[in-house]
Write a structure and sequence with these properties.
The protein is mainly β. It is 7% helix and 50% strand. The chain has one helix and ten strands; from the N terminus they run αββββββββββ. β4 and β5 form a beta hairpin.
């Protein structure tokens, strides 16, 4: 499999992260818990053991900032050691999980940025690097190994397509990943 094929497959695997979450996720209420909460200048700042959920979307972090405009969430910024993001893209698929020290989720741009020790896992496949950007609108994944982590290289594990399937979207979900995040 050449590099172009691998990147196309990676885009297909990561696409559910933003484009097709469960249909009612965005219409669900946002639930938050933290040790401390502050709201000022259209920003909610939550610190200490932060847990956020909205439908199948779950974020865990040391610090979480929610940026609003006209009472609508525009961006969610999570800091942690690492911070965790997970969401179920479709009812018939497993959960997409991601972790990084910094996660920026821009709802209006349909983009997620993972920085510093970034990893995305979905259906047994995994990509790791210092920085990963996924644009749902552009259907684009860009990963950078950086200079410090992983010897400055992007690391990928791509699961083979199951026989008789047309694309990764139609393959059956594998057994749960034993390397799940805490």
């Amino acid at each position: 499999m050449n590099l172009s094929s691998k990147l196309q497959l990676l885009c297909l695997l990561a696409m559910p992260l933003m484009v097709s979450a469960l249909p009612n996720d965005r219409s669900q209420p946002i639930n938050l818990s933290s040790d401390k909460a502050t709201y000022e200048n259209n920003q909610g700042i939550y610190t200490g053991n932060v847990n956020m959920s909205q439908g199948s979307l779950k974020i865990r972090a040391d610090k979480l900032i929610i940026v609003e405009d006209d009472r609508k969430v525009q961006k969610v910024i999570a800091h942690g050691s690492p911070a965790y993001f997970e969401q179920q893209p479709r009812a018939e698929e497993g959960v997409v999980s991601a972790s990084a020290r910094l996660i920026e989720y821009s709802l209006s741009d349909e983009e997620i940025l993972l920085q510093k020790d970034a990893t995305i896992r979905h259906q047994g496949s995994k990509i790791s690097g210092d920085r990963i950007v996924y644009s749902g609108r552009k259907q684009l994944v860009v990963a950078d190994g950086g200079s410090r982590s992983l010897d400055g290289r992007v690391q990928m594990t791509l699961q083979p397509q199951q026989p008789g399937t047309e694309s990764p979207e139609t393959e059956p979900a594998p057994e749960p990943d034993t390397e799940s995040t805490p």
